[in-house]
Write a structure and sequence with these properties.
This protein has helices at about 10, 20-30, 35-45, 55-60, 65, 75-85, 100-115, 135-145, 150-175, 190-200, 220-230, 250-255, 270-285, 300-310, 330-340, 355-370, 370-390; strands at about 90-95, 125-130, 175-180, 210-215, 240-245, 290-295, 320-325, 345-350. It is an alpha/beta fold. The protein has an eight-stranded parallel beta sheet with strand order 1-8-7-6-5-4-3-2. The protein binds flavin-adenine dinucleotide. The site of flavin-adenine dinucleotide has 27 residues, from strand 4, helix 13 and strand 7. Flavin-adenine dinucleotide binds next to strand 4, helix 13 and strand 7.
């Protein structure tokens, strides 16, 4: 009998071969060493041409294989089927970053529309994109600051709005939900504004569009409360993807540089409390909200289950989703889906050289979130040992 809901490694790693387990173990072992991550980061960002031949093969068969589904949508099929056999949905995420022109933005839109069209049998209920993958960062920033736009900028901004519209309209038709990722706080006001226009149009029957709330931001519980006050008397269903937030250091550095008060909570405990408070508030108003919980934190996931039970929400209610990134926290994803909860994994894909920034962020994250890496390591070794002992019986 396991004492923790997520301790069952037999369920967590049931789709992993012995080879997969050893690969996962050694990858987490390597990226738990900050010096190794820093050196790799230096070489891969300063000398990207190094990523050819043997180095590419090494990256592709190690860290890329751990955290990505493949280089193309087609490459991901095996992984998607594998996850699906455990009732876990895949959210294909084209994780190429740093796209900065209209050609690239339109490309992201057509790729996203194609992904929406894959949803033939409710097999791909979500798609996701970053606002800066369909529009220029500086424009989001300007609109967020309520600065006036030149005629050209106005035209470009309208193109961005049209891209959001195109994606959400098609998603609405195909019964797919759209997750809008959150990035830096200083571009978020413009995204929040777009989100509200979209939910009025597309979220009356169900939560087609989800905005991301980063609980490490001091003002986000207030934001959720404001949304409730605005829409509680309407037919709008507010989709919220709740995460802690991935840009903490960048946010703090900028606040320090530009001499304003950091918008981020001062400690991990405060962020944890904020996450739980946001979640509690949403569950208390679940008639109005749909929630997509993106977290690798065991306590938060356990608390969500408790709230669901307190509010008598069926485990597979379409208003509540749990999600983790592919290659991380399988013990949470697989044990939740085993209990019947709705679970989806972000499944990044893209050419190896182009997803390097994504991979480096995963490595960085696992380097700085020491506890999480050692948890992954101990889960992998627990399962390796369990299988060794089992084969001895
Ligand atoms: C499915 C999914 C989707 C995601 N989408 C987004 C997204 O759109 N935008 C985005 O920004 N992130 C996103 N993330 C990443 C997320 O924000 C977190 O960085 C990551 O999941 C780690 O948080 P946790 O809840 O899993 O785990 P935990 O390990 O419990 O929390 C780590 C997080 O706590 C916060 N934290 C750590 N130390 C401190 C401190 N000293 N002071 C204040 N806060 C602190 C940071 O946010 C840190 O990332 C996503 C994650 C998942 C799983």
């Amino acid at each position: 009998m396991e004492n923790n809901l997520f301790d069952n490694t037999e369920i967590a790693f049931k789709s992993k071969s012995k080879m997969d387990l050893y690969r996962g173990y050694y990858i987490f072992k390597i990226i738990s060493k900050p010096i190794v991550v820093s050196i790799s980061k230096f070489f891969l960002t300063k000398f990207p041409f190094l990523l050819g031949g043997l180095t590419k093969w090494f990256v592709k068969s190690s860290i890329f294989k751990q955290f990505c589904g493949g280089e193309t949508e087609k490459d991901c099929i095996k992984t998607v089927e594998n996850l699906s056999s455990s009732n876990i949905y895949s959210i294909l995420d084209y994780s190429v970053e740093g796209l900065v022109d209209n050609y690239a933005f339109d490309n992201t839109v057509s790729r996203t529309l194609n992904l929406i069209d894959l949803n033939t049998d409710n097999n791909f209920p979500f798609i996701v994109f970053k606002p800066t993958a369909i529009g220029e960062f500086s424009l989001y920033e300007k609109v967020s600051k309520a600065e006036s736009l030149s005629i050209d900028e106005e035209l470009e901004w309208n193109k961005i709005i049209d891209r959001f519209e195109l994606i959400c309209e098609r998603a609405s038709l195909k019964n797919v939900s759209v997750l809008i990722d959150a990035e830096e706080s200083w571009i978020q006001p413009s995204v929040d504004q777009i989100f509200e226009n979209l939910i009025i149009k597309y979220n009356s029957k169900r939560a087609t569009v989800y905005n991301t709330v980063q609980a490490y931001r001091i003002d986000r519980l207030f934001y959720i409360k404001e949304l409730k006050n605005k829409y509680f008397n309407t037919s709008v269903n507010i989709g919220i993807k709740l995460v802690r937030g991935a840009y903490m250091e960048k946010e703090r550095d900028r606040a320090l540089d530009l001499k304003y008060t950091s918008p981020i909570h001062n400690s991990k405990n405060e962020t944890d409390k904020s996450f739980n408070d946001c979640m509690n508030y949403i569950f208390n108003n679940i008639n109005l909200f749909s929630i997509f919980i993106g977290s690798h934190n065991e306590q938060s996931n356990t608390l969500a289950i408790k709230y669901m039970s307190n509010h008598k929400i069926p485990v597979n209610d379409g208003k509540v989703w749990f999600s983790q990134l592919y290659g991380m926290s399988d013990h949470i994803s697989y044990n939740l889906s085993h209990l019947g909860y709705n679970v989806a994994k972000y499944l990044p894909f893209g050419p190896v050289k182009d997803v390097i920034p994504y991979l480096l962020r995963r490595a960085d994250e696992n380097k700085s979130v020491g506890g999480q890496t050692s948890r992954e390591l101990s889960l992998f070794s627990k399962e390796i040992n369990r299988r060794k002992n089992y084969s001895k019986v």
